[in-house]
Amino acid sequence: MTTAELTLPNHSLPTADPRLDAIRAKVERGERLSLDDGMVLYETPDLWGVFELADLVRDRLHPGVAYYNINRHLNYSNVCALSCKFCEFYRKKGDEGAYTHDMESIAAEAKKACESGATEMHIVGGLQPYLPWDYYPEMIRTIKRVAGEHGTDLHIKAFTAVEIVHLAKIAKKYKRANRKESIRLILSELKEAGLGSLPGGGAEVFDDRVHDETHKGKIRSDEWLDVHLVAHELGLNTNATILYGHIDQRRERLVHMEILRRAQDQALSRLGYADDKDAFTEPGLAATEEIDIGAITLTRPGSKLPTPEMAEAAARNADGSSGSPGGYFQTIIPLPFIPDGSELEHLPGPSGIENIRTLAIARLMLDNFPHVKAFWIMQTLAMAQTMLQAGADDIDGTVVWYDITKVGGASTHQEVTVADLQRAIREAGYEAVERDTLYRRVERDGRSWKLA
Ligand code: V47
Q1: Which regions in the chain score pLDDT beneath 50?
Q2: What whole-number distance in Å separates Cα of residue 75 and Cα of residue 100?
Q3: Could you tell me which of 386, 377, 375 has the C-alpha nearest to residue 352?
Q4: From 3.30.9.10, 3.20.20.70, 2.60.200.30, 2.60.40.10, which CATH number describes the 16-446 domain?
Q5: Residues 140-189 pLDDT 10s
Q6: How far is the CA of 204 from the centre of ligand 1 (A)?
Q7: Closest ligand 1 atom, CA of 160?
Q8: Calpha distance 115→111 (Å, rounded)
Q9: For ligand 1, what atom is nearest to the CA of residue 200?
C-alpha cells in the first residue's frame, strides 16, 4: 500500500525524509554508516523509515526467527566499593539490604536453575571488597558440579569487565603497566574453572565526560575494551551494552557504537573475515592500539555470521597444532537508563520512542554484530516485543530474579514464563527459537535439553 492509499488523517502520515535515501542505499548494499548518518537517523522525523531500515538488516541476518533463552540471573553480592550515580543496586557493608551469597546458597540457586531446565546462569555482582579471589572460581566450580549432579550443564556467563579488573586486583595480579597480562591470567583461571562467556554490562557510555560525571572510579573504556579483547583472544565470546538516556548525548552514543564495531572488526579478522575495502571507516577511532584494520561488515547480502564452530576451527591450525582462538561480540544490548532509586532519580529517563529509535540505530550502526538484544526487564516485555520489528532479534530469557534495576518499583522477582516469551515473539510475526548462550538452537523435552 502506498501512502496515497492510506485513509489516515494527515498528521498521521509518515514524514518521508529525503536524507534517508542515501542511507537506505548504503544499508541495501550492506555498507558501513558514518557517525553523521547516525545523527540523521537520530534526528529524522521519519521514524518508520528508521525502523524499516533496521528491520531490513535484521531480516537479512535472521530471516523469520527471534530468539529467547531459559536462564537464571544470580547477583552474588550487592556490596560494592563504587557508588555510580545511575546505580540503584549497590549497598555498603552493614547497610540495610546488603547481601553476599555463600557457596551453599549459590549451590541452591544452581539446583533451582537445573530443575527449571535453564541452559544459562548470568552472574554479576558489585565490586565486593571483602571476598577473597578464591570465592569466584569456587562459585563457578560449585555451579558446574551441581549441574553435573543433575545430569545437565549450565553455561556460565559471568562478570562484567569492571569485575574482572577488580578480581585481578584482589588476586594481586593487577599491574597497570601490563594490565592485559593480568586480565589474561584471571580470565584463564576462570575459564579453567568453567566460565563460558562474559556478559556485556559495565560499558555505560564510552566517554570521559560521562564517565567522570556519573561513574568516576569505574574503569574507563580502554580497560573495558582490553578485558573483552583478551577474552576474545582466549576464545571466550562476550556481549556489549550501552547505558544511555541520562546525561549522555546522542553523538556520544554513536561514538560508543563506533568504538565497539572497531573492536569487533579486530575479533572478526582473527576469525578469518576479510576487510570490506570499500566500506566506510571512521578516521581516528581505532578501538585499541592494535593494528588498524579495515571495516568488516556482516550485513551485506549473503554474509555469513560467526559461529562457535568457526571460532573452534580458527583455534586449530590445518596441521592439528593450536592456532589463535577466536571469540567475538555476539550481541549489543541497549540499556535505557532506569532512574528509579538511583542518585539520578530526578532525570526522566529516555522515552519509549527514544528507546526504540536507539535500538534501531544500534542495529544499523553495529553492522558487524550478529545480534541485537531487547532486554525485556529494562525495556518491558511489551516494548521488547515491539522492538522485534525495529532491529531486535532476541528478547533474553526467563531471568527469574533481577536486582540491578526495577522498573516502576518492581521487586527482585522479575520472571516471565517460556510461554510468555514465545507468545511475545509469535505475535510479532516470528518463529520463537530457543537458543543457548552462544546462539545455538536448543531442542527441548520438558526440562531436558540438547543442542539441535
Ligand atoms: O552493568 C546499572 C547497567 C548493567 C542501571 O550480556 C543500568 O546478555 C539502566 O549488562 N538503568 C547490567 N541500566 C545489565 C547487563 C545485561 C543485562 C542483560 C543481558 C546481558 C548480557 C547484560 O546494567 C550494568 C550497568 O551497565 N545499569 N544501573 C540503570 N539504573
Answers
A1: 1-9, 278-291
A2: 9
A3: 386
A4: 3.20.20.70
A5: 999 999 999 999 999 999 999 999 999 999 998 888 779 999 999 999 99
A6: 8
A7: 1
A8: 6
A9: 6
CA–CA distance, 275 with 292 (Å, rounded to integer): 11
Distance 258 CA to ligand 1 centre (A): 20
Residue 132's pLDDT is: 97
Buried residues in 315-329 as b, exposed as e (16+ CB within 10 A): beeeeeeeeebbbbb
Mutate to test the pocket of ligand 1, among 195, 405, 406, 407 (most ligand atoms within 8 A of CB): 405
Q: Ligand 1: residues within 6 Å at CB?
A: 86-88, 160, 199-202, 204, 239, 241, 243, 333, 335, 337-338, 342, 375, 378, 396, 404-405
Report the nearest atom of ligand 1 relative to the CA of 336: 9
In whole angstroms, what is the distance from residue 227 CA to residue 232 CA?
9
Domain segments of the chain as ranges: 16-446
Q: How far apart are CA 392 and CA 51, in angstroms?
A: 10
Ligand 1: atom nearest CA of 241 is 10
Q: How far is the CA of 201 from the centre of ligand 1 (A)?
A: 5
What pLDDT score does 4 carry?
41
By residue count, the chain amounts to 452
**For the chain, percent of residues with pLDDT exceeding 70:** 91
| Summary mean pLDDT of the chain | 91
CB 237 within 8 A of CB 328: yes
Q: What is the pTM of this model?
A: 0.93
